[in-house]
Amino acid sequence: QVQLVESGGGLVQAGGSLRLSCAASGRTFSTYVMGWFRQAPGKEREFVSSISSSGGSTAYASSVKGRFTISRDNAKNTVYLQMNSLKPEDTAVYYCARRNQIGQYDAWGQGTQVTVSS
Length: 118
Known about the structure:
Elements: E1 4-7, E2 10-13, E3 18-24, E4 33-39, E5 46-51, E6 58-60, E7 68-73, E8 78-83, E9 92-99, E10 105-108, E11 112-117
């Protein structure tokens, strides 16, 4: 079973930047679409971004488009989320996830906290 471990969260002022990383175990990382999700207190988990297996195609939620950039390094089994121009409403626990062949996100990391102060 794949293991996903996020890192890079923290406390940052509004307007600042953070880069999240998600390291995956196993030898099939490069065959999967990977995604980032977030969950703010009292809210449902929401989609943030995804990237194709090769890295050639990406998708973003409208709330982060133009501010966040997803990327991956298949040689390092790692997916990244560069977050710029952070806003207090970006405060949440951020999770990375693997999407399986039928389009379901079936493996999740433990999450990393991002807190943006105003």
